[in-house]
User: What shape does this take?
Amino acid sequence: MYDVAVIGAGIIGTFITRELSKFDLKTIMIDKDADIANGTTKANSAIIHAGYDAKPDTLKGKLNEKGNAVYGKVCEELDVHFKRIGSLVIASNEEEMESIKELYERGLKNNIPDMKILSQEEVREMEPNLNEEIIAALYAPTAGIVSPWELAVALAENAVDNGAEIKLEMEVLGIEKNEEGYIIQTNNGEIKSKYIFNCAGVYADRINEMVASRTFSIHPRRGQYNILDKSTGNIINHVIFQAPTKLGKGVLVAPTVHGNLLVGPDAEDLEDKENIATTRERIAFIQEKSKKTTTKIPFSGTITSFAGLRAVPSTEDFIIEESKEAKGFINVAGIESPGLSAAPAIAEYAIELLKGIIGELKERKDFNPRRKPVIRFMELSDEEKAEVIKKDPRYGRIICRCENITEGEIVDSIHRNAGGRTVDAIKRRVRPGMGRCQGGFCGPRVMEILARELKIDIKEVVKDSKASYILTEETKQNKADQVENLEETKIS
Assistant: This one.
């Protein structure tokens, strides 16, 4: 019997699980996918919003600023890339000027520090490559960028380091309430727990309805993106938003923490909670819309496109509350933007709800907020590289030439707590396959390393799930069979 079960291993589930690991609780986090951060967390804008956009009387408005304020500390503890580069909301006409003035006033109510409305000249000085039609911008220096999937993996790893458990490929099929708590029925056995946090993203409404009547619904909103090569990463230096108007919010243009350029997303409401396909029409749409921000993006440098689903709630605000019909069942649902930004504060808020149900929690004296540092070989000095290779020669073997990722880094990412088990899992942890060739050259080597380190047949190595197999049989053997069949045909 667990004290707490967390359903969903995205950024919210992992933040809550890590927060729970600070206390004397037996905690487990489960997810239906083969890896952490496999839903919305792996496919979003990766922006830590300053907090001026959300209405002050909402959970979004209250938790964004609080979450933003602690991101530097959290990412430093977990050795995750985070850059507080600031954001600009641009205006090209008087209607948009009124919009950024409203955002400024809202930001003041949300206690967002150091905001400023910049003149055209100040904007041009900060960002010379922006569209010349821009007349002003709202500047918020506390906005930042992060790698959401790397952060979720780090949170999960740190939670396991501190005693939490994780079980993947466990899809929740039903939940039964009894006197002791809950029995979670899954495709891979059952989990007994006294309390549950429902952090199931776009599926949170369905999980809730396993224990209670419908009080909210979640519908998926698809957003599509372009990622451009690192050679384009210095076109702009801040997160650039277009001013919201009656026609929508436009698209953003932003650098990534790894030096690429991100453009998108659009917004498309769907019924299918699994539809993350990209389409030619919508990618063309975001490229066209981006010209309002800058006309200098060379989309010929696009290395990949992707789509993600946002969990849009019927309540128009975060849903963080205990079910009125199921005691000890806490919904943490509808965490759309600025969910990533608010995530640390959402976790603290959720734990306070748990304390309100069961009383004060005993803190663990041995909780360690820091995970083992990650060796990022290409960020080391020549002297440091030599020392690392001396200790482990695998760091001297480059596997991914686009991103300069070594065998040592890949092996380390496999054997950590919450380590990678699929090609995409390794890609998210240490970036082989994130470069220009998108894994065309390094992919087979990553598969070989996974097979060797996990002691499995290479045909068992998958891209992202059991359904995404890569190899079925040896091609040389297949060719030999073809030759043999051909010879038999000749003889007959």
Observations:
- The first strand starts at residue 2 and ends at 7.
- The chain has a mean pLDDT of 95.
- The two ends are 67 Å apart (CA to CA).
- The chain has three domains: 1-83+145-217+314-373, 87-141+219-312, 377-460.
